[in-house]
Amino acid sequence: MRRLGVRAALVGGELVRGDVGVEGDTIVAVGSAGQGSGVAVPGFVDLQVNGFAGFDFGEADPDGIRAAAEALVAHGTTTFQPTLISLPEEVYLRAMERLGEAAKAGLPARLLGVHVEGPFLSPRRRGAHDPDHLRPVDPGLYDRLAAAGPLTYATLAPELPGALELIPRLVARGIVVAIGHSDADAATAHAAFNAGARAVTHLFNAQRPVHHRDPGITFAALARRDVVLGVIADGVHLDFDTVKVVVNAALERVALVTDAVAPAGLHDGEHTIGGQRLFVSGPEVRLEDGTIAGSVLTMDAAVRNLIDRGGAPFERAVACATRIPAELVGRPELGTLAPGTVADVVVLDDSLSVVRALVGGEEAFRA
Length: 367
What we know:
Urease, subunit C, domain 1; TIM Barrel; 6-stranded mixed β-sheet; globular; 28% helix; alpha/beta; 10 helices; 2 domains
């Protein structure tokens, strides 16, 4: 048995004093006697990440996918779900194939599957998506994408003709459906959730604005107990007072996501990704016209922000980056730390910065 040399571990939502033991790819002991430093937590699970370290998942080659995964795990993300925004079908298909091959080959972080965010989205709430790549609902497109690679998650606008009928079809195939980039009213949102949609993509953003007599997707989702709320806690997509409202209302259903784009982990300034110019300044990523275009957030920073600026307790903030997203995609073993579970582990120091990460018991990062 190898010991990690930590002083405590987050087990089942509770802080357990003592060390963690690993054999092979499995955690075999927690609370072991010994002196150590840092707190072991489950590895972070990011369900929405478009790119990282200069590489966009829509166009990255195998080396680029590997480099992005290596950079992600340094911030505690041991499992990630590459996200493809609205693209031409031939670009989707090539990206799905490359990502599927990369997952089979093995990476420094686990590639869970692919999140296709689009192209069945509202032109009124398209955000940074290219309007030329939006299209009417075509169930056959998802069939073709699933045949090309590991399609695990889809974001769509439920008000589009045919979208509500498509949701149960996707769910039957084991694909998690989220609603987003949508001008749907609350009634349509509830219809989508009743049809099987289980999450909201980046709550409040690219959705019908909230009004007390027109609650839209955001408040429809907050009013339910069976919907997971994707939250980008970077202070740009949501003011931190808004984050506090979500924390107070529905922390047990928050899944932290980064929505990171390729310039994440790089320098401020202008970047060109897929022919699109992005401008990074501090935590902001914008198009030339000022539209928010993803983030440069990392999962460890999101956890710190949820605690420091959102008022969430440490144990529950970590759950928002581990257990809750893992359970949403049907992989609960990837979001827990306990004897018998897979040894995807992150060690945090006193400032909640990542100092070590293991994936399947193998050292993936060490500061």
